[in-house]
Amino acid sequence: MTDTILIWGGGAIGGTLGAFMARAGEDVLLVDIVPEHVAAINENGLLIEGPVETFTQPMKAALPAEVTGKFKTVILAVKAQHTEAAIEALRPLLAEDGYVVSAQNGLNELTIGKLIGPERTIGCFVNFGADWLEAGKILLGNRGKVAIGELDGSVTDRMREVHRLFSLYEPDAELTTNIWGYLWGKMGYGGMLFATALTPASMSDNFASAKHAAVFEGLGREVMAVARARGVTPLGFNGFDPAAFMPGSSTEDAKRSIAAMEEHNRHTAKTHSGVWRDIAVRKRKTEVDAQFAIIIDLAKEAGVEAPITKRLVELVHEVENGRPQSWDVLDELLAACS
Predict the structure, then answer these.
(1) Where do the DSSP E strands lie in 83-221?
(2) How far is CA 40 from each of CA 43, 46, 54, 220, rounded to the nearest angstrom?
(3) Which of 228, 226, 224, 227 is nearest to 240 (CA)?
(4) How confident is the model at residue 227 (pLDDT cuts 50, 70, 90)?
């Protein structure tokens, strides 16, 4: 077994984390399925650019089929829909006492836990803005909340070690005993980001649209209701306040949180969500089914109505399939809020 940190997925999130860890002296191997990206990193290093920092980090990269050996620390940073296939591919590479840290969006820890066991899964919450620009180049648009936690809320030595590694990127990274709180908070916020991807406008301009405030309020309320029914206490971050969308809160409470999210997203070079970028730039399917549609099933289990979430998933599918992103599409989601 080696002490090499294996990062499976060398795009925006995995690449950024890997570059900062490697720059700090950690032995990192970045794995990605894009041959041009792997070749560019091996030949010229990985360029991180943007308002946070700009530097080129020499580091090792490989295609999945090229990786051999056993690894104790594996950071998974692939899109949610590729989680199961990635775990199956890296399972033979996982040391007997190895574990997987999910640096992804969504509740992928549930899937990873089913495949390799929850005791070999560490939860992770990341909310910084980054985009894969081209082979060997990543935009780091802004800093954002980072948290690490065991799924059962315990505090372990391996969790402290993972926290140390992530602190090499984000010095304010939190070691939390409520990682599910952050993950469910991100689900509420993430649903809103899927809605912003229905239009060509930036995240902040979507949040600033008074006409569509009911969309963001409604999505937040539906997701927080499911979280509450499952006994989770969601946590806030970067303007998203779970309490503002809980039963008993007012529309004014929700509007204050939406305004805070608008303000947070005004100060980033990453103006649009990764969901928007998948549709408009990379012309590929989004994570909506693997990452967000799970809310529909969990809501049904909990006896919670989620008509806005259901309509959002339908509309995301429509723009994935070629319907132009426009305010008219968001207007249709607004109609589901009445």
Answers:
(1) 94-102, 121-126, 129-134, 137-142, 146-150, 174-175
(2) 5, 8, 17, 41
(3) 224
(4) very high
Q: Which of 269, 278, 337 is nearest to 11 (CA)?
A: 278
Residue 1's pLDDT is: 57
- 90 sits in the region (left: phi over 0; alpha: psi -120 to 50; else beta) called alpha
Give the pair of three-digit tokens for residue 18: 């890997």
Per-residue pLDDT of 170-222, as tens digits, reads 999 999 999 999 999 999 999 999 999 999 999 999 999 999 999 999 999 99
- Note whether 139 and 270 are within 8 A (CB): yes
- Single pTM value for the model: 0.91
165 contact partners, CB below 8 Å, separation of at least 6: 5, 21, 26, 73
Q: What are the residues facing 47 on neighbouring strands?
A: 56, 137
Selection from 225, 197, 200, 196 nearest residue 213 by Cα: 196
DSSP state, 271?
A: -
Question: 264 exposed, middle or buried (CB, 10 Å; 0-12, 13-18, 19+)?
Answer: buried
Residue labelled with tokens 């640096």 = 103
Q: Is residue 30 within a helix (H) or strand (E), and if so which, with residue range?
A: strand 28-31
Band the pLDDT of 338: cuts 50, 70, 90: confident
Give the angle 293-294-295 at the CA atoms, nearest 5°. Answer: 85
Distance CA 163, CA 183 (A): 16
What does the block give as tokens for 51? 């308002």
Residues whose CB falls within 8 Å of the CB of residue 92, separated by 6 or more in sequence, listed in order: none
